[in-house]
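Researcher: We're teaching a course module on how sequence relates to structure. For the next exercise, students receive a sequence and then see the predicted structure as tokens, so they can try to spot secondary structure elements on their own. Here is the exercise chain.
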Amino acid sequence: MAGVAVGVVTSGLMIAQAWLLAHAVVGIFTTRQVASYLATFGMLAGVFLGQALLAWLNQVLAHRAAAEVKSTLRREVLRARLARPTADQASSATLVHVVTDGLDALDGYYSKYLPQLALAAVVPAVVGAAILWADWESALIIAVTLPLIPVFMSLIGWTTQQAVARRFRVADRLANHFADLIEGLPTLQAFGRARAQARGVEIGEEANRRETMRTLSVSFLSAFALELLANLSVAVVAVTVGFRLVGGHVGFETALFVLVLAPEAFLPVRQVGVHFHDSADGVAAADEAFAIIDAGAVAPTRPSLPAPDLASSTLRVREAGYTYPGSAEPALDPVSFEVTPGSIIALRARSGGGKTTLLRLLLGFEAPTTGEVSVDGVAVTDLDRGEWLRQIAFVPQNPGMVVGSIADNVRLGAPDASGDQVVEALTALAADFDPYRSVGDDGEGLSAGERRRVALARALVRVRHGHARLLVLDEPTAGLDADTEATVISAVAASGAAVVLVSHREAVIALADRVVELAPAVVPGLAATEGVR
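Model: And here is the predicted structure for the students to work with:
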């Protein structure tokens, strides 16, 4: 509504400007007395000042709207990611690209395109009405030629959208490639393949440059086409007015009024096409943001019930299976087992057997498509998410790390843990390194085994001092030698919490009270059935 109001006032000032100019110019040439029109010049100055203030107000409103929308979208994207952090959504590189540079491009949409769209909806109608009042023949020409601009603008806009969508996909692919390259750089360096990846980056950069130049060429050519069409339309009005002025069929003041005002009828519509290119990148990023939000959306009617205390409750998995949307085959065949307080359940399956999917169901990030995962008869997905996750300590295959010290990373499990408690947890896992040793981004400076033990120490601290009741471990001893593995197994068994772990290591499997086979066993000769130990 604010944009429409600004458009109405702007168009009124344009009409006043055209009338004052025509009146002053004709009057001065007729009377040859400039002093008589000083008041007119003062009013013109007021009109110019009013137009400047309106332009400033339009920009302020647009930038505030852009900031609010970008902030809202970023919050919703992060909320969707946190709602289903283990779901197969956009990669981290795509997420970073969207919420930073991608959504920043919405400034062009809100600060240029939308305000211009409001002006294009109001100004031509008001200006056209003023021209119709002064000279109906010129108004008729404008009414016939003006609709041609939106037609050509639509055709050009479709081409622009396709070009920008291609460029966004290429830029996103380049961002993901670069992120994967940085993540795998130590391995590539170890095998002497780091320099060979430079060619792949060069190919991605060239593709991005090519798509960017293609988009710019479409933008420049479309701006030229719209400018040419608008100028030709104004020229038709000017020629007809000139001939009628020579023939005495229209007055000088009216002719000048129409000639000053006619370009203003075409300018807002023409600028919509020009600014459409400024908004295309932001719209593409917004589409990707909405896709991430939709992928992470949870049912709005989902209840939120208090989570039972796992210290005295049983987690039951009853014929729980899961099929991903759009997939014909289930990712997890129906499986059943119970996790009682203090029990240790081992999950074993070959790659792709559904271990990760089952852990997602246990954490409550996904609801099973068949069967149920429940606590005391209440589905896990119906429990209050915060209360449920506070009772769980989860160690994934690739534990996350933050920049800081080892102690800082351990305290993520229990922020109030003391230094002695942190050292105690590390010692229990044979992690005899300095707790105040620095850790870089994503665990830089730690070996794979050290990183895993830091994550396990974080889980132990969460159990001992953060009131977690369930340990969920995905390959907890991968990358550890036999002696360290034995120490880790003892620490996990002594934690007192219920444990659900995924492993292929026989020493870890032997720890379990029960082994659940999700698929044919990976070790030849073992029965592919669910067993009890």
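Model: If you want an answer key for the exercise: Residues 198-246 form the longest helix (49 residues). Residues 520-533 have pLDDT under 50 and may be disordered.
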